[in-house]
Amino acid sequence: MIYLSLACTKVKELALLFGHHSKLRLLDQEESDIKSLASTLNSLKKLLYLEIRDCKKLQIITDLPQSLEILDARDASSCSSLQNLPELPHCLTTLDVSSCSSLQSLPKLPKCLKTLDVRGCSLLEALPELPPSLEVLYADECESLKNVLLIPSTMVEQLKENKKRVRFTRCFELDEHSLKAVELNAQMNIMKFAHRHLFAQNHDKAIYVYPGSSVPEWFKYKTTNDYIIIDDLSSQVLAFIFCLVIYENSYHTGREELKMTICDGEGESKSKSDTLTIDDFYIYSPNHVYVYVMYHKKCSDFLISKAKDLVRFQIHVAYKRIPKQGHIKGFGVSPLNTWTYDNLVQQMKLRDSLNHFQ
């Protein structure tokens, strides 16, 4: 047997079940009455996927099999005694503990972890050091989160990073140092992602969302309006990175339709316009202001194709539900060329050198 489902069962103990299932690879205990995941799990030497989602009576997790790649513990919000996790398997690539509202800390993260979801872990005050392998970090509604270590100690480590989806919505306790670290990490990783995906065939994207009220200073073009004038643009632009500062005061979080319109002029001089509609843009956590820093290849390619023959043009952004008076509080565009990214790398290397002599 390689798959065993105990979902929605009354099973409370696992010790007697595993004597003849050493080849088990997937164990599903979603919404079961299990109270303890004891060391008997270690007998499952080939277990890859463990789902304990919504196990409201779960109190203790001890040892986990070192073969484990995915631990899904979503919605364990009633696990009042589940405050910590054991040492994590070195093969773990996905850790989902979203809505584990009593979880107070995380153990050291494995070096091959790609996805970390801690949404709704309201007692979590800090994140451990994040491995360079991490691609996705969801930390929405971590209301006690104060410290995050997003900036690697050296430029060498920074260049190994792969983060492309990072969210810190409703994390209002983050200290100033952490917010600055998030902003710098967004700049580095979004630029690097764009640089690596210039010639990709798919329309991939990278995005950071975090509390804030203004477009970061590193954006060349920025405004507090929902439109921006672009001029003096180099002919060697390879891509565009975008920033939106959005306030959403209706209680809605979800998928939205974002429209980007480019016009060859401004005001009454507009003579031609083209519009791109993006249907995979998401609005997060209403009633607050957030900064969205993103590279969206479809948007970038559209802008390059339309702007290559224009000396001066206007870009207007809107999303479907927003009223005309708008809740877009800021809009930024940063062109990316070879030396833009290289200059940032050199600045980070200089920072390493200065830190070395301090």
From TrEMBL:
PANTHER family to which the protein is assigned, alphabetical: LEUCINE-RICH REPEAT (LRR) FAMILY PROTEIN-RELATED (PTHR45752:SF195), LEUCINE-RICH REPEAT-CONTAINING (PTHR45752)
Name the record gives this protein: Uncharacterized protein
Lineage: Eukaryota, Viridiplantae, Streptophyta, Embryophyta, Tracheophyta
Family matches, as SUPFAM superfamilies: L domain-like
Domain of life per record: Eukaryota
